[in-house]
């Protein structure tokens, strides 16, 4: 095999080969010269640099996001400048025969190679590694068995109508191009953009193929493809569809100089009896698919018929409604199968034809509960009915709904309590009352042998001594001791207060003496639970020299007064009040009623006189010296002595 190198700008790395000239002749290398050619390429890569029109920037191209809908998903994170090339013409009026100029044969090109591209057939150019943007240097076999390295269009089939991905594989370029679905409008070729940017007007998107593989493909920004020159040359064709409420019809459209033709698919219509597949479902005169129905009606009901087309006429075939029987069919066509018959498990078969009425996996002849699911056939009491349907699962004569332990025959309402660790009578207590010795201060328990133990509770355990007249009751030595007796004193002196052990405090009215708390009343007494005041105390102390009054808080008040006074008792009753007493005026003549006194006058102690001096009187009567006693009797002097006369 020979390798041909055409028209390559080599540079100064191999001056003896081209001497910086545009080489116009073919240089043929035999197979044993292949290593030499490789050395030439390495030299050029190190010293010559790249063609200024090469696809710079391909490396580092961002990976697009994986879509989740299995279709085309643009990468929202890519910068617009990274996803689309500048909108500049790929070829700007190339000279005839030069690279990019239109051609119909090799003879039209300076480098005699006319190759297909998305712009139509254009003149190519030879290459070693680099080509203008959008083109790739690729070795192709032009029929001689040798590889000729030419610049070929990377995206030759981009946006070309297609039926499958095979239509998108270009003659020379366009590797990994996929036929992308476009809905009813048809399918169009994408272009691989996994390591190169898309041309202007296209976006690099993820496409998940039906086989699950992910491809990065260029798709038009507007979502629509036109007809490229290449597509027009090939009259590229795609499959299209038209749809309506009745179905979808398939057709084709292809590229012309005027653009894509309209889809030639028929318009899907309602199926009619005309010998044509109107709705495009592949069946002619399929009236049911066309939505045509026909009823069959009688006195029992209306059943749906099947419309059929025969000799251009629609016939309605089917069964008439009949009375419902238990057969698993909707005989009367009311929409309910065997509706008069019970269906315990609500499946598709009524009980009359269902061999497992409760759908528990056990057929009725072997099922201990035929209408209630009991897949494990539980039967607690071993009778003929399983637990799922037995109203008394422990056979204790109490229905489960009223039994606190429906699976224990020793526990049910009304059963006598025994020392067995169970709530035999369903009152919420276990073994209560069996060992009760009537003493709260003992712990009454059933022992392991079914007997009783009555051990004292700890001292200080609160208890109730049976009387409400004690307020703090605690256990002491297994007995309840009451303390802190209740104080029943109601503070009323007219009630008798006492405590009844059962009813507690009571207060009974009495008739005792009391005090109404008023010191000005005397002899207060109780009546109907209240203290009634007695007579009011006059507080009269019979002293004209005091002012008498009463203070309810302290009682009588006898306040001394001044001024004149008279007791009215004797002739010395007139005087002046002093210190609460009537003090007579002294010196006033009076008669003290004693005839043996003389010179009577009022003193502070009343009327008082001087005793008669009978000694003087008797001396006067004696002419001598009177010796002896003398005394007064009834106002007269009795001279009992001796008169010694001289």
Structure description:
There is one protein chain. This protein is mostly beta strands and 646 residues long. Among the domains are: 3-47, no CATH class; 72-260, no CATH class; 442-484, no CATH class; 487-532, no CATH class; 597-644, no CATH class. 5% of the residues lie in helices and 28% in strands. A four-stranded mixed beta sheet has the order 2-1-7-6, with no helix packed on it. A hairpin with a 2-residue loop joins strand 13 (237-244) and strand 14.
Largest sheet features: 4 strands, mixed
> Regions with pLDDT < 50 over 5+ consecutive residues?
1-86
Anisotropy-based shape? elongated
Helix share of residues? under 10%
Count of DSSP-assigned helices: 4
Mean pLDDT: 81
Compute the number of strand runs.
37
Which percent band covers the strand fraction? 25-35%
Q: Distance between the terminal alpha carbons, to the nearest Å?
A: 224 Å
Strand order of the largest sheet: 2-1-7-6
* C-alpha Rg (nearest Å): 71 Å
Could you say which structural class the secondary elements and strand pairing correspond to?
mainly beta
């Amino acid at each position: 095999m020979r390798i041909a190198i055409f028209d390559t700008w080599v540079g100064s790395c191999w001056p003896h080969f081209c001497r910086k000239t545009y080489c116009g002749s073919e240089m043929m290398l035999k197979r044993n010269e292949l290593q030499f050619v490789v050395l030439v390429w390495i030299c050029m890569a190190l010293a010559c640099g790249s063609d200024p029109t090469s696809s710079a920037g391909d490396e580092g191209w961002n990976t697009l996001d994986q879509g989740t809908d299995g279709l085309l998903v643009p990468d929202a994170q890519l910068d617009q400048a990274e996803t689309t090339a500048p909108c500049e013409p790929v070829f700007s009026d190339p000279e005839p025969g030069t690279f990019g100029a239109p051609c119909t044969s090799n003879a039209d090109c300076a480098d005699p190679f006319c190759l297909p591209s998305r712009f139509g057939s254009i003149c190519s150019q030879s290459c070693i590694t680099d080509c203008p943007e959008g083109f790739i240097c690729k070795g192709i076999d032009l029929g001689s068995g040798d590889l000729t390295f030419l610049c070929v269009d990377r995206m030759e089939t981009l946006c070309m109508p297609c039926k499958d991905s095979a239509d998108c594989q270009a003659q020379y370029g366009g590797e990994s191009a996929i036929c992308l679905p476009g809905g009813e409008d048809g399918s169009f070729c994408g272009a691989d953009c996994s390591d190169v940017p898309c041309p202007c007007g296209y976006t690099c998107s993820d496409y998940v193929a039906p086989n699950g593989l992910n491809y990065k493909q260029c798709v038009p920004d507007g979502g629509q493809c036109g007809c490229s020159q290449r597509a027009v040359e090939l009259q590229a064709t795609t499959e299209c569809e038209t749809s309506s409420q009745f179905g979808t019809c398939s057709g084709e459209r292809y590229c012309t100089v005027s653009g894509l033709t309209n889809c030639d698919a028929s318009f899907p219509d309602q199926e009619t009896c005309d010998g044509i597949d109107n709705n495009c479902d592949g069946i002619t005169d399929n009236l049911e698919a066309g939505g045509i129905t026909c009823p069959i009606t009688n006195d029992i009901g209306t059943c749906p018929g099947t419309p059929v087309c025969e000799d251009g006429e629609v016939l309605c075939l089917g069964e008439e409604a009949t009375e419902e029987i238990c057969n698993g069919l909707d005989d009367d066509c009311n929409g309910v199968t065997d509706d008069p018959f019970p269906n315990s498990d609500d499946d598709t078969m009524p009980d009359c034809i269902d061999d497992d009425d409760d759908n528990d996996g056990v057929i009725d002849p072997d099922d201990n509960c035929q209408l209630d699911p009991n897949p494990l056939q539980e039967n607690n009491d071993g009778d003929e009915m399983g637990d799922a349907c037995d109203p008394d699962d422990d056979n204790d004569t109490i229905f489960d709904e009223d039994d606190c332990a429906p699976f224990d025959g020793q526990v049910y309402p009304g059963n006598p309590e025994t020392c067995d660790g169970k709530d035999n009578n369903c009152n919420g207590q276990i073994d209560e009352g069996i060992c009760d010795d009537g003493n709260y201060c003992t712990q009454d328990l059933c022992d392991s042998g079914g007997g009783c133990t009555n051990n004292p509770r700890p001292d200080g355990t609160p208890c109730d001594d049976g009387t409400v007249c004690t307020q703090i009751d605690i256990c002491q030595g297994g007995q309840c001791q009451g303390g802190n007796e209740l104080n029943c004193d109601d503070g009323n002196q007219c009630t008798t207060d006492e405590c009844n052990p059962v009813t507690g405090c009571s207060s009974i009215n009495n008739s005792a003496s009391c005090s109404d708390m008023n010191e000005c009343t005397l002899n207060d007494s109780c009546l109907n639970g209240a203290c009634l005041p007695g007579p009011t105390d006059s507080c009269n102390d019979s002293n004209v020299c005091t002012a008498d009054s009463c203070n309810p808080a302290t009682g009588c008040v006898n306040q001394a007064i001044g001024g004149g006074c008279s007791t009215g008792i004797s002739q010395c009753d007139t005087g002046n009040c002093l210190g609460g007493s009537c003090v007579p005026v002294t010196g006033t003549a009076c008669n003290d009623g004693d005839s043996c006194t003389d010179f009577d006058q009022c003193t502070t102690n009343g009327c008082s006189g001087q005793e008669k001096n009978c000694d003087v009187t008797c001396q006067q009567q004696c002419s001598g010296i009177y010796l002896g006693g003398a005394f007064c009797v009834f106002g007269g002097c009795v001279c009992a002595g001796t008169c010694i006369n001289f």
